[in-house]
Amino acid sequence: NAGVTQTPKFRILKIGQSMTLQCTQDMNHNYMYWYRQDPGMGLKLIYYSVGAGITDKGEVPNGYNVSRSTTEDFPLRLELAAPSQTSVYFCASRRQTALENTIYFGEGSWLTVV
Amino acid sequence: AQTVTQSQPEMSVQEAETVTLSCTYDTSESDYYLFWYKQPPSRQMILVIRQEAYKQQNATENRFSVNFQKAAKSFSLKISDSQLGDAAMYFCAYRGTSYDKVIFGPGTSLSVIP
Hints:
The complex is a heterodimer of chains A (114) and B (114). With 114 residues, chain A is an all-beta fold. Chain A is 0% helix and 49% strand. Helix content of chain B is 0%, strand content 54%. In chain B, strands 2, 5, 6, 10, 11 and 12 form a 6-stranded mixed β-sheet that branches. The model of chain B has no long low-confidence stretch (mean pLDDT 91). The interface between A and B is medium-sized, with 25 and 22 residues.
């Protein structure tokens, strides 16, 4: 299994540009998450989804949008990029069952806004 | 809202010695899950150990064990016989059973001294 795949791995954006970080998982997981990790800091939840067609805000949703049209894909959209969005972005997924506690992370996407 | 606190931004340990990383959390739920994740320089998030709140027995995984104090809302990680490969950021994380979000602490950077 490929697990959780994120693209691109690295990207430089100019202020005001827009872009989409792609995330796909092949484990048929219902739950998917987007986190950002600033240098030397912990993970902050941006958005999450409990299934296709359902999304909800996390701790730091401003400046981002998500969609979940399929179980596999959970893209993160940055509109009007700002320097404050320079960060490493992690997509993650897990099964819906209460007994399944493992969260599978992607390898991260390094984004720099200049 | 749930919060996770790690009061030690940095820790160091001599190789082969034992180190304990602290984590406290705040929640009004009675049932939940707690995790420790390891993040090496590669930025991959690796699940180290997990604990279900309804279990009184502390979880153990080889050289890693936890001290779970539910009343005190404390969840510390003990690493025995520390190895150079244990050097990484360690994150404590919380997931409630009635919530879908996974909340991470700010992390503790662990250095292992040869």
